[in-house]
Amino acid sequence: MDKIIVPIDFSKYSEYALEAAAILAKQNNAEILALHMLEMSDALLTATDDGQKPKALFFLKLAEQKFEEFLNKDYLEGLKITPIVKHFKVFSEVSEVAEEHNADLIIMGSHGVSGFTEVFVGSNTEKVVRHSKIPVLVIKQKPGNLNFETVVFASDFSDESVSAYIKASKILQDSSKIHLLYVNVSGENFKSTAEMEQQVANFLMKADGNMNQLNNVHYVSDYSIEKGILNFSNLVGADLIMMPTHGRKGLAHFFEGSISEDLANHANLPVMTFKI
């Protein structure tokens, strides 16, 4: 991991994300790209009359000064920080900035339980998750050491989820213990034990070329997939939940409806998504 992007909006949640980025940057000797979107109208930025120009410059300088002060944190000392200021607050552009700078990860802060609706439904974090071609880590509280010693990778183990699993494996440290989780619920997606085991076996052969991770696969039954993920994550003391996403098309078939919403709404854990 060489470059980490952190969108900054000056909230305490973006500071949580910045601190998390600092921890991961020190672990990986990575650069942090601190991205701030100026919330200024096109009319103001492109104004030609003498009255509007000074006003636009004033707000630009004010925002840039605030951004500089925000980045003056002790935990950033010794790290390579590259401030990036965009003059439009269009969060779908975060993905474009990530591609332009060959970033490996985007870290964003979220309001957690109380503010999930505004974070993941039609909001900035949801827009970034949907547009991003690289993994997105959502942080909900002040980070600890972020060692991610115990990780839950929740999936339906379909062929299209293989790429997400491979990316997740590359991000995790050798010391991380990864639990592969399949949640079985009643309904049209219900599978027998034999069907689940066969699907996971095919998945592991395509992803790893072997069955070495078979002992780390867990099958649980619950009233809903999100409850199954949360209950299992709490049971094993997980530090991180990982899951695939279809981006603009919505979450993967395994995460239909409000599953991702409920997960981010109720989990205090960091959640990392991978576009498939």
From TrEMBL:
Domain of life: Bacteria
Chain ranges of the UspA domain: 2-140, 148-274
UniProt xrefs under Gene3D superfamilies: HUPs
A Pfam family this chain is assigned to: Usp
Record family assignment: Belongs to the universal stress protein A family.
UniProt-recorded name of the protein: Nucleotide-binding universal stress UspA family protein
Organism name: Gelidibacter algens
